[in-house]
Design a protein that fits this description.
3 copies of one chain form a homotrimer.
Chain A lengths: L15 E4 L18 H13 L4 E3 L12 H13 L6 E3 L11 H14 L7 E5 L6 H5 L15 H20 L3 E5 L9 H11 L4 E4 L3 H4 L8 H8 L5 E4 L1 E7 L4 E7 L8 H10 L5 E4 L6 H21 L4
Parallel strand pairs in A: 1-2, 1-10, 3-4, 4-5, 5-6, 7-10
Antiparallel strand pairs in A: 8-9
Helix pairs in contact in A: 1-2, 3-5, 5-6, 6-8, 9-10
């Protein structure tokens, strides 16, 4: 939590990954992306590259690189190298290590993700407690419109969660990696206060947060002011999913509606947030995300916006 | 429905028309645009040109070129030529050939539009079953907030509709033209399934669809997922009105709200839609539309966005 | 109200100020911006300058330059000069001269603002009847979601208002200044008709309007169509706060929701509004405002958009 004197990057070199969220884990023909020929992987990564990205996060809703056979991982790594990508971090999604049903399986998977990270040059892995979707969420226009599972109010589960993330922290540290825990509603990382409490309970130098406030500001329910949340969690940030939303509240009727928004014009000021983060010593990679619409196109615009903000934070004149 | 091997255009030459929607059919002084001096036409077309458009659709809510006297059509054509515009297609609006009151009149008008099309170089005419506005629609902030007329559930009317579009198809074919039928709620072209059924019943090589999903995704009611709709209708597309919307649904209260949105950031991914369309062999012109706000400015931004998407579809390296 | 033959500016030189709205009147350490060292002022003004602004409005929610001691005003002026800013106008906020409690204090303050204006080169002061916030407004996501105070339906207060603005008009005229009265809901400037009535009652050549329709189109209640309002007020415009909103109305439920929007894509067409204003002889400065999100970044985009619109209004080819 000490303020760093000077970040490792300037505005042009700061790593900003494209999330692979816009790409499904299932190919048009119904087969798994996991089993797709390398050409299919190349196709989408080339599309990402063609929009100017030089960093990518192989979000595991698209491809679980931790579960690739060695020869297939080589194929993946070759493509990444051929396209000139670096991989600052790997994000796992909906693989909760305290899932009521798949906790052990997900823990084992999480260890495998840590094992694969150094092989693709990643320095950080983003874990979360995001639950599997409820059926109504899958049918919704935007999944956050519908309630999902909640982590239980159960000290034993909390303690298990702490112990397992600490175990993953040890593993990460042994590999020179860090872990970022993604904030997400109705989990033990569902509020700023809970997130700080969890990471403090874990109390491991390799374990921090992914202050993905976009997950919270899009909820159709009252939320804490974003800047208040951010002030609490930013000191722990090790990786940062950035995305924004329009948010409208009508107190008279109680209606709250949100829509995915470009990073610049959504309700959260990333100009302020980035300044706050640099002030707090944040030195990690960004990952641009966007749901709905042209996710990739908006992410590319968001990346350009983010660099313009970084330039204005005094990081532009380094060279 | 055969997949074409190669489209006729590249990203820079693909025709993208400006709709004349932002311009009213009535002049500031209350007179009709139809009777306005050529200078008034020049003024607005020059404004469109000044935003970089090289194609224009003389939407007939602005000007009914089919109803111009020969000398006035010459004036119009001179302006178009002087400004360097081409006219890939002409869109008619709210001229239903099965209108309860004006069906015959509208049919005759539709034939006149086909007759005029070759004179301005147009290859496609977009017809639709859009009904006249209800009074409440005219008073609404956005007309789609209020219910409009519905085509009747009446086999005889359906058959008449089929017969008349086939008749127009014959006329079009005789002139080397094609017809695109615009999807629009509560008409026989109000859903993807109905649209396919209508065009299949018409069964005429010159008659296809205008898959204007923007008309549907903006409705304050449940809708079929856009990509599911698009997969059904895109094989028949001959001309394509493109526009986008923010769409918010609150399942708890049943509230659904929408707002006109830039093409890139609205809820429908035109990056995916364009890729799907090229895959399906779409080879027609686009027409950018936008309601409310600065329609022309947003249309120009949308055109630039569309070209950037076409470039990424592998069409950029032709020259 | 005579139409001016030719405006004083072209598209590149037309003054477009950044509002200082994104910056608070309180420093991070809790102290007042008023008492902050000049370096703090420089920091934020430099940030504004770095986004390409050459004009700035020292909105008094950030800094009350009228209340600075002479030496501190010199510090402020030095910074403004050093950064190459001009100050076309000064905006006061929530300093109603008919405030139930602070009317006299606010009137005295308003005179001081007029006195300071020539010292920083300002030609216009924007006054308003904006009331102090209600507690619920301060807690709201956007303050306009909650009702605020209303000016009383009281002829005596109206007359006092007229008299005081006339008094300020005399003062302004004596200094070669003009006054623009900002439209704002539930005040005597809360509708287009009331605004015209008030300025007509004041009947002073130095007193006009600030047709800030953004304040009205964002309200969660029925409003007059923006262009109808604008036609009424634009002849009196002397300074113009521009901002835009997405606006959604659901007549079935009565729900109306709004969100801050970029100037180009919001529901009001600034392309039309600017054309209307030039047609009406508007010759004053613009001030770009934006609430929520990255106010400064959106304001900079809005400024660029505004210049592109001015260029298309035939003002681009002057040089």
């Amino acid at each position: 939590m000490q303020k760093q004197m000077s970040p490792s990057y300037d505005a042009e070199t700061w790593p900003i990954s494209a999330a692979m969220l816009p790409y499904p884990g299932v190919q048009p023909d119904g087969s798994s992306t996991q089993d797709a020929p390398a050409d299919a992987w190349y196709g989408v990564l080339n599309e990402v590259r063609s929009l100017g990205f030089t960093e990518v996060d192989p979000t595991d809703s698209w491809l679980r690189i931790a579960d690739l056979a060695p020869s297939r991982l080589d194929e993946f790594s070759d493509i990444v190298k051929r396209l000139g990508f670096t991989i600052p971090a790997i994000t796992t999604a909906r693989r909760s290590i305290i899932d009521p049903e798949f906790a052990d399986e997900n823990l084992a998977y999480s260890h495998r993700v840590l094992d694969v990270a150094p092989k693709v040059g990643a320095k950080v892995v983003s874990f979360g407690l995001l639950p599997r979707f409820m059926p109504a969420q899958l049918d919704a226009l935007w999944f956050w419109e519908q309630p999902g599972y909640s982590d239980p109010d159960d000290k034993a589960v909390w303690d298990l969660c702490v112990a397992r993330f600490r175990e993953l922290g040890d593993h990460a540290a042994s590999l020179g990696l860090e872990i970022a825990l993604e904030m997400y509603e109705d989990t033990y990382l569902g509020t700023a206060d809970d997130s700080v409490r969890l990471v403090t309970d874990i109390d491991h130098p390799a374990v921090g947060l992914n202050p993905d406030l976009g997950n919270l500001i899009r909820l159709h329910r009252p939320i804490e002011a974003w800047r208040s949340m951010f002030a609490k969690v930013v000191p722990y940030a090790k990786y940062w999913h950035v995305k924004n939303y329009f948010r409208m509240e009508d107190p008279a009727s109680g209606i709250i509606l949100t829509s995915p928004a470009p990073l610049e014009s959504g309700m959260m000021s990333y100009r302020l947030a980035v300044a706050d983060a640099l002030e707090a010593g944040f030195n990690g990679a960004f990952c641009v995300e966007h749901y709905g619409g042209d996710g990739l196109g908006v992410c590319a615009s968001n990346r350009d916006y983010l660099r313009s903000v970084l330039r204005r934070c005094g990081l532009g004149s380094r060279q």
